[in-house]
Amino acid sequence: MPPLVFGPVIIALVDLSLRATSLQRSVVVFVLGWVLWTLVEYWTHRTVFHFEPEQGFGARLHWMIHGVHHDHPSDPRRLVLPPVVSIPFGAAFLGLFVIALGDPDCWAACAGFFSGYLIYDMLHFALHHHRPRSRLGRFFHQLHMRHHFEDEHRGFGVSAPWWDVVFRTYSTRARRSQRGARSKGSWLRH
């Protein structure tokens, strides 16, 4: 569902940007919007999705937002935000870009941000429901499965694992495993 909702919006935002400014500026601002998305993804996953009240309404709300995904990681209905949530959030972020950046930069920045969200959603779904064949795919799969099955307090960057390195939440088990596997020469062949 996210590609059907956000794909046309991204195309429209890119078109608005290209009509209002140069290709070079649009590309730079688009990339900055995407980088901002990766930070929002990391911090939302770390602070909102993994804030776990112990009881009451907060505990129930956490379970509905993200806890159910950890309890049932293979349930395809629990992998992406439904449109009833993602569309209002998308509209709010578009509004923030318009207020913060104004015309014309808001269009490219928001297109980059929404593209990051779309990449994240599709990658997250693929990590749970497909066997990756490429080295990079296996790397992302391995990191995300570590988050689910070894240490849910690490590995928050699903589409941008470099933020786990920057903010020191990279899986220590992954680091140990990589060192051992590198010495054997089989680091992502499994």
List keywords for this structure.
single chain, 190 residues, mainly alpha, disordered C terminus
Folded structure, characterized:
With 190 residues, the protein is an all-alpha fold. It has a domain at 2-130. It is 73% helix and 0% strand. The chain is built from 8 helices and no strands. The chain has helices spanning 2-20, 23-49, 56-71, 83-101, 105-129, 135-149, 162-166, 172-184. Helix 2 (23-49) packs across helix 5. It is globular. The two termini are 31 Å apart. Mean pLDDT is 80; it is low at 177-190.
End-to-end gap: 31 Å
What pattern of helices and strands is seen along the backbone?
A: HHHHHHHH
What sort of overall outline do the alpha carbons produce when their principal axes are compared? globular
- What composes the largest sheet? none
Using only CA atoms, what is the Rg?
18 Å
* Beta-strand content bin: under 5%
Can you give the helix content as a percent range? Answer: over 70%
Mean pLDDT: 80
Q: Which secondary-structure class do the elements indicate?
A: mainly alpha
Q: Count the E strands.
A: 0
Number of helices: 8
Low-confidence stretches are 177-190
Summarize the model shown.
This protein is mostly helical and 190 residues long.
How are the secondary structure elements laid out?
Elements: H1 2-20, H2 23-49, H3 56-71, H4 83-101, H5 105-129, H6 135-149, H7 162-166, H8 172-184
Helix pairs in contact: 1-5, 2-5, 4-5
